[in-house]
Amino acid sequence: MLTDYVEELQDPKNKKLYEDEITQLEKERGVDVTFIHPKPGYVIKTSVNGNKKAFINICANDHIKKPTSSPTIKEGTKDTLHLAEKNKAFRTMVNTTALEAVETSFDVKLDKKNLRFPKLSYKGLAHA
């Protein structure tokens, strides 16, 4: 039964129905809900506490605010993933921010000296 439930949840039609139902229920409670669907960017591979593999997905979404420092417009866009792709220093800043956020949020220590960047745009399943 659990397998059937997981397969049912992975069906795009059922995901949309689930999100619509949650949005409606929260709206009845006076809460405005927006589901954030990640747009894959790239993956950082590191280790947690020196003994477990860790993958950090660097993603984007139009609902997330753009960088607020004085962004440079290149090729008509100022999206974080685009800038990280074009500017090594900016990418390093994005990576450092992501690593620090994971450490703070999950109370773990990541290996920042031995980072790897597999040729993946996303690791695992994207969840809203």
UniProtKB/TrEMBL annotation:
GO cellular component labels: cytoplasm
InterPro entries assigned: PIH1/Kintoun_subfamily, PIH1_N
The PIH1 N-terminal domain, residue ranges: 9-75, 79-126
Family stated for the protein in its record: Belongs to the PIH1 family.
Protein name: PIH1 N-terminal domain-containing protein
